[in-house]
Amino acid sequence: MTRTKPSTIDLALVAAVGELGFTISPTQLERWRSNLWLARTADCTDPDTGGLRPEVVHRAAWLAAAARPGRSISWLGWIFWAIDDTPETVTRLRAAVVAALERPFQRTGVDIGQIPEGECDEAFEARRQMAAAILTDRRCPRKDLDGALRAAATEAEFDLPPSRSVSNIFHRDLVESGARVLVGGADDVAFEDLLEAWEAALPGSTEMIGNMRAGHRDAALAGVDLFSQSPLAGGLRGLIRTVQESDDRLLSAAARACTKGNGALSILLLQRAPEDPEILRTLMADVMWHQWVRVGGFAPVLGIGGEAAIALNVVQYLTIPGWAADLERYQQLMDTLLARPSSELTDKP
Predict the structure, then answer these.
(1) What is the dihedral angle through the alpha carbons of 147, 151, 156, 162, rounded to the nearest 10 degrees?
(2) Is residue 264 a contact partner of residue 270, using CB atoms and an 8 Å limit?
(3) Distance between CA 257 and CA 263 in Å, rounded?
């Protein structure tokens, strides 16, 4: 029940959204406004015509499409905060991104504020135990998204571009190393330990491991610490600090780009690719398939997994030189694929 009688404007908005095929209530409008996803009642009309602003009706319809009884609209709410880009909405956005990053720790009872710092043996061992706690009862999938798609393509006798990385980035050894980095930062995991994890995840990768070792050695000789350039160099605390200290406008831009990219990729993979397999070949041939889709942990679903993936994407956007430009380029590629008729792909010789 609404606390007050619905206004004439709200009733008109409910009716306008109903004409688009969605059923909403004044109570929902109040809830969306309390979350800063929808304009105030006073801002819903055009001051010149007195009619409902089309963009308000469109947004209410979006919210209606995303709303499910008993479920959060998840990262879709981030889109509206980022688009509006006001001090209030950016505050909500920043808190949501940080919460998504912290959630894997909270689920296992690990308080990031209690992670011991320092290089003494006691602090190092405590961090190792915290990392192990995060992985307790965690099931590592036998295939990640990339591996699942490749397995299906092989079964269908459809060739895809070769992978730029291991066949499964969620391999247990890689996940264990990743958990230690999240807890203690890059300094807690020796480079040789990472190489051993890669070897376990990709048997027979002697040449690749050799190239990685040589690249690391050459960088060290040149006085460059490759680990320090990673968003994960400071662990989870470093990721959170990046989000908390980022400029408001840049954070909004990052969220807009990453949520838009996630939505476009979801449509391509879930709706278009089953009918047009060539889409997969085009997407996976680009370096951003590895740098964004796989490394970013892309999850084409709403919910917690999707939030964590996009939160990490936002950090990549904010910290990795050239990543934002590469995502923009990849977005243009996806827009082209979305706009192209199916026949243009399937009828190619």
Answers:
(1) 50
(2) no
(3) 10
- Using the structure block, give the residue that is written with the tokens 């269908």: 156
9 HSE (CA, 13 A, CB side)? 17
- Specify the pTM: 0.88
Spatial CA neighbour of 264 closest among 239, 288, 295, 231:
288
Residues 173-219 pLDDT 10s:
988 998 999 999 988 988 888 888 888 888 877 788 888 888 888 88
Q: Do 178 and 189 touch, CB atoms closer than 8 A?
A: no
Say how far apart CA 270 and CA 239 lie, in whole Å.
Answer: 30
d(CA 314, CA 255): 6
Q: Are the CB atoms for 7 and 41 separated by under 8 Å? A: yes
- As a whole number of angstroms, the distance between CA 12 and CA 7 comes to 9
Residues in the chain: 349
Q: Is 339 exposed, middle or buried (0-12, 13-18, 19+ CB in 10 A)?
A: exposed
d(C-alpha 124, C-alpha 188), whole Å = 7
Q: Please check whether residue 327 is in contact with residue 288, taking contact to mean a CB–CB distance below 8 angstroms.
A: yes
Torsion angles phi and psi, residue 233, rounded to 5: -55, -35
Which candidate, 16, 10, 15, 47, places its Cα nearest to that of 31?
10
Per-position DSSP letters for 228-265, written without gaps between them: GGSTTTTHHHHHHHHHHHS-HHHHHHHHHHHHHHHHHH
Q: How many CB atoms lie within 10 A of CB 259?
A: 22
pLDDT of residue 346: 44
Say which residues have a Cβ less than 8 Å from residue 240's Cβ, sequence separation at least 6: 98, 101, 102, 112
What's the chain's average pLDDT?
A: 87
- Which helix (DSSP H) or strand (DSSP E) does residue 95 occupy? helix 87-107
Q: Cα(91)–Cα(97) distance, rounded to whole angstroms?
A: 10
